[in-house]
Amino acid sequence: MLATAPRAELEPFAAGRKPVIYLAGAIDKVPPEFALEWRRQATEALQGKYSILDPTADKDLFLPGVNTDYFTPEQIVTADLNMIQQADIILAEISRTDLPYHGTSMELAYAHQWGKTVYVWGGCQSYWIRYHATQIFDGLADAIDHLYYR
User: Fold this and answer.
1) Tally of domains within the chain
2) Which of 59, 71, 102, 107 has the greatest number of CB atoms lying within 10 Å of its CB?
3) Predicted TM-score of the model (pTM)
4) What is the 3-state secondary structure (H, E, C) of the chain?
């Protein structure tokens, strides 16, 4: 863990505004409950201190085909990239060993290129994730504690 937050992480607080967090993680190929529950927990825990951008907010993940038939790839990717641009911090779930996390990995690389703070939870120790992450946490509770008490 980092001993102190880099200056870039503190600037939104110093400017008198809530920092913005984008919630990245698996949506496709996971049960809707999985994609939604951790985001609900993070939002409830952090919404007083942060503004939250959730890519699942405008989607009914229980609708059959929502990830394949209702939106074009351009709509999904453009919306996600726009939210990442607005965010100060990316909080990413990479906790499952049964998924390749293609989209999430691309989001992390994009965020890293733009100098965003990238927090990953789920304990993933991939070289690529370690390179692009500011910090990796074993679980969501650890990441939330760090964000809430920093």
Assistant:
1) 1
2) 107
3) 0.88
4) CCCCCCHHHHHHHHCCCCCEEEEECCCCCCCHHHHHHHHHHHHHHHCCCCEEECCCCCCCCCCCCCCCCCCCHHHHHHHHHHHHHHCCEEEEECCCCCCCCHHHHHHHHHHHHCCCEEEEECCCCCHHHHHHCCEEECCHHHHHHHHHHC
- φ, ψ dihedrals at 74, nearest 5°: -60, -40
Is residue 108 in some structural domain? yes
Q: How far apart are CA 15 and CA 128, in angstroms?
A: 32
Backbone angles phi, psi at 119, to 5 degrees: -105, 130
pLDDT in tens, 52-103: 999 999 899 999 888 788 889 999 999 999 999 999 999 999 999 999 999 9
CATH number of 117's domain:
3.40.50.450
Q: Domain limits at 51? A: 28-149
6, part of any domain: no
In whole angstroms, what is the distance from residue 35 CA to residue 56 CA?
A: 8
Decide if 11 is inside a domain.
no
Tell me, yes or no, whether 37 lies in a domain: yes
Tokens found for residue 4: 């102190």
